[in-house]
């Protein structure tokens, strides 16, 4: 039994050290990964006031069940009470762990952004969510969502055909893995001094407590 405890100690220390590296980067190289600008860069347009003191960086997948649940429930309250009031802003970054369909949906959202309709299209995807790996994301359905959000269809389809944003979405996925994202949804909630990671679709109270702490 003593040997087991001795073997466990380095593992526990390693886990604790890893947590501090995520939340409190010490070295110059780590700090370059965790500046607010670096974290937000290349993601979605900001939802809310750009100067809001607290940022939620959501890592999501359009097929993810718990991303859908967060979007349909918790986010509505956060939006009304915190984002619309200028206390919090939201940035979405893609982590398409459910395969090519998720990658394609993410590309489509940035094609919509070319026409300044990112959040409308983002919301339309979740509004029409059809499960994980069920085949509901197709070129036909993505075009249907584009019609619903009043996009120029010819421009939208050209963007998808050209795979204009494929490299961008792949790079977002790789950056997420680099900083320890391994599930969707995952959130980095931060101000100028501190980063708090929330993994999974946690209850609203977890987010409210995090806001208070920041």
Structure in a nutshell:
Belongs to the glutaredoxin family. Belongs to the thioredoxin family. DsbA subfamily. The protein has 214 residues and is of the alpha+beta class. The protein contains 10 helices and 4 strands.
Stretches with pLDDT under 50, minimum 5 residues: 1-31
Report the CATH topology name: Glutaredoxin
Overall pLDDT metric: 88
The structural domain count equals 1
Question: Order of strands side by side in the largest beta sheet?
Answer: 2-1-3-4
Largest sheet: 4 strands, mixed
Which CATH architecture? 3-Layer(aba) Sandwich
What is the topology?
Layout: H1 2-23, H2 28-33, H3 36-40, E1 54-60, H4 65-83, E2 88-94, H5 100-113, H6 118-127, H7 139-148, H8 153-161, H9 166-178, E3 186-190, E4 195-199, H10 204-213
Parallel strand pairs: 1-2
Antiparallel strand pairs: 1-3, 3-4
GO molecular function: oxidoreductase activity
Domain Thioredoxin: 25-214
Protein name: DSBA oxidoreductase
Structural notes for this entry:
With 214 residues, the protein is an alpha+beta fold. It has one domain: Glutaredoxin (3-Layer(aba) Sandwich), CATH 3.40.30.10. The chain has ten helices and four strands; from the N terminus they run H-H-H-E-H-E-H-H-H-H-H-E-E-H. Strands 2-1-3-4 form a four-stranded mixed sheet. Strand 1, helix 4 and strand 2 form a beta-alpha-beta unit. It holds the Pfam family Thioredoxin_4. GO terms for molecular function: oxidoreductase activity. Keywords: Disulfide bond, Membrane, Oxidoreductase, Redox-active center, Signal, Transmembrane, Transmembrane helix. Belongs to the glutaredoxin family. Belongs to the thioredoxin family. DsbA subfamily.
């Amino acid at each position: 039994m003593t040997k087991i405890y001795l073997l466990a100690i380095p593992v526990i220390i390693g886990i604790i050290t890893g947590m501090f590296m995520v939340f409190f980067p010490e070295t110059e190289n780590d700090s370059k990964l965790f500046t607010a600008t670096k974290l937000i860069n290349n993601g979605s347009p900001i939802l809310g006031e750009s100067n809001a003191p607290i940022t939620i960086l959501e890592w999501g997948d359009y097929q993810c069940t718990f991303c859908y649940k967060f979007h349909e429930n918790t986010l509505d309250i956060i939006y009304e009470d915190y984002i619309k009031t200028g206390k919090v802003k939201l940035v979405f970054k893609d982590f398409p762990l459910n395969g090519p369909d998720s990658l394609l949906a993410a590309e489509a959202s940035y094609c919509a952004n070319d026409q300044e309709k990112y959040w409308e299209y983002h919301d339309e995807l979740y509004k029409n969510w059809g499960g994980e790996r069920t085949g509901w994301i197709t070129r036909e359905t993505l075009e249907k969502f584009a019609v619903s959000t009043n996009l120029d269809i010819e421009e939208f389809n050209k963007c998808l055909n050209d795979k204009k944003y494929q490299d961008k979405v792949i790079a977002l996925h790789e950056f997420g893995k680099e900083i320890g994202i391994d599930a969707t949804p995952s959130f980095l909630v931060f101000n100028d001094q501190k980063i708090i990671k929330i993994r999974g679709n946690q209850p609203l109270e977890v987010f409210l407590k995090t806001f208070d702490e920041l």
